[in-house]
Write a structure and sequence with these properties.
Layout (H helix, E strand, L loop, with lengths): L5 H11 L2 H9 L5 H5 L1 H6 L11 H11 L1 H8 L8 H13 L6 H5 L6 H14 L5 H13 L7 H15 L12 E3 L3 H6 L2 H13 L3 E2 L10 H5 L2 H18 L3 E4 L3 H15 L6 E4 H10 L9 E7 L3 H4 L6 H10 E4 L25 H18 L3 E4 L2 H13 L6 E3 H7 L6
Parallel strand pairs: 1-2, 1-3, 3-4, 5-6, 5-7, 7-8
Helix pairs in contact: 1-9, 5-6, 7-9, 11-13, 13-22, 15-16, 17-19, 20-21
Bound molecules: iron/sulfur cluster (SF4) (2 copies).
Length: 421
């Protein structure tokens, strides 16, 4: 790869400036509402974490090069240029203090999509050599090994053997013509192996034809997190190639929020063509099976349960009611967090923050908002449907000495399936 320089970074920022970007900067009324929506700003109280400020490198390039006023300022020698020092300083603002949760975007009174602009700004940061080490190595591993954590198929093969011996079922692999291709995330494979066993049991119970692919099993898209469209497109192409090889009609994204938005919403634009298959989050599939009467459960959890909505699923994709329908199937004593669904608070770990070791302190600071929400309703257990959120909830609750276990929704459904005769 050729050298990453300020000039490359500026060229990338320039390339990101389009009509929505120009409309964004022209219409911002500096009301500060986005700040009140951001857990990183609110929980640190530090004005430098104000969402709109995170866009300053992109805003400067827009003003300096795309506006008449900017050009006049240039002639008068009054332009504030984007320098390498500035980008080095902004690295923390653009990556460490933003989980790409999109809460700022939904509260902006003039409809500015701050989350999308931060993604654009990351494109320039990467090209100028100002991306966090943790995200760079995750991206390199994703391209070279297929997984941001460097997992190979042999690790998954061992897990498949465990699932098969404990469930007595077969995990289908490379089954051509199956209806669904199931993708996993590395975080799930490492931290929550029970997820694979849960879907194996549920799909067997519901009579679903599905398969894993040895060609591509990973749904995580490190290119989206670091902010590099070429890497993101390459990772999407691998999923598409695997789905095409196996001729599936549907692809299931795992319990991982950003993987779902990457493959479902951003993927076709990244690769420049529509998919020959449809994409669903596992929770959407389970809710469809529930509605069709193909999931039969027995018994209910009787302890007080609450739910954390992953930002990518609820706020960005509108998957809100499905998880509540599934909870109703297996939980007797469910209580929603006060702000939930579209306006729920981020756990603090998404958007690559959890892969960026340097951001650990900020990640835990942002979690305090979620902690306060959980304290308000005092559940005995939390349920969620994103491996990154689940890891952050577990780590955060432990850090604050709150003894509240966290469970995955898919796994909870599997535990209540009616046994076959
Ligand atoms: S909420 Fe919207 S209009 Fe208000 S400061 Fe933020 S970006 Fe500007
Ligand atoms: S996307 Fe979320 S974390 Fe990032 S600036 Fe907006 S509110 Fe803050």
């Amino acid at each position: 790869m050729s050298e990453l320089t300020l000039e490359r970074g500026l060229a990338a920022l320039r390339a990101e400036i389009d009509a929505p970007t120009a409309a964004f900067f022209s219409s911002c009324v500096h009301c500060g509402l986005c700040a009140q929506a951001c857990p990183f700003y609110l929980e640190t109280g530090d004005p430098k974490y104000t969402p709109i400020l995170k866009l300053e490198p992109l805003r400067r390039v827009w003003e300096n090069e795309f506006t008449l006023w900017g050009r006049i300022k240039g002639l008068l020698g009054l332009q504030k240029k984007v320098t390498d020092e500035m980008l080095a300083e902004w690295e923390e603002l653009v990556y460490d203090s933003c989980s790409l949760c999109g809460r700022c975007s939904v509260v902006c009174p003039v409809g500015n999509d701050l989350y999308a602009m931060i993604r654009k700004t990351r494109e320039g940061m990467v090209q100028s050599g100002h991306a966090p080490e943790g995200l760079i190595s995750a991206s390199v591993r994703a391209i070279t090994t297929g997984s941001p954590m460097g997992l190979q198929w042999k690790t998954l093969a061992v897990q498949i053997q465990h699932v098969e011996s404990s469930s007595g079922l077969t995990v289908p692999v490379d089954r051509e013509g199956a209806e669904y291709l199931v993708l996993l995330s590395s975080m799930e494979i490492i931290n929550f192996p029970e997820y694979l066993e849960a879907i194996t049991k549920i799909f067997d119970h519901a009579g679903i034809s599905w398969t894993l692919s040895t060609q591509c099993f990973e749904a995580t898209n490190a290119g989206i997190q670091i902010g590099n469209k070429d890497i993101a497109a390459e990772l999407v192409e691998r999923v598409v190639a695997a789905a095409e090889t196996l001729r599936v009609s549907k692809v299931i994204s795992p319990e991982c929020g950003h993987a779902y938005t990457a493959i479902r919403w951003e993927g076709p634009n990244l690769i420049g063509r529509p998919y020959p298959f449809r994409v669903f989050h596992i929770i959407e599939v389970l809710d469809e099976l529930r509605a069709a009467g193909r999931i039969k459960t027995e018994g209910k959890e009787d302890d007080r349960l609450s739910l954390h909505d992953p930002c990518n699923l609820a706020r960005k994709s509108g998957v809100i009611q499905q998880q509540r329908n599934l909870m109703a199937l297996v939980a007797e004593n469910f209580v929603d967090l006060k702000e939930h669904g579209k306006y729920q608070w981020c756990c603090g770990a998404g958007g690559g923050v959890s892969s960026n070791e340097r951001a650990e302190e900020l990640k835990m600071a942002a979690f305090k908002r979620k902690k306060a929400q959980i304290e308000e309703v005092a559940p005995e257990r939390m349920v969620t449907m994103c491996a990154t959120c689940r890891t952050q909830l577990e780590e955060g609750l432990e850090a604050f000495n709150m003894e509240i276990p966290v469970v995955g929704l898919t796994e909870m459904i599997a535990e209540h399936l009616v046994e076959r005769d």
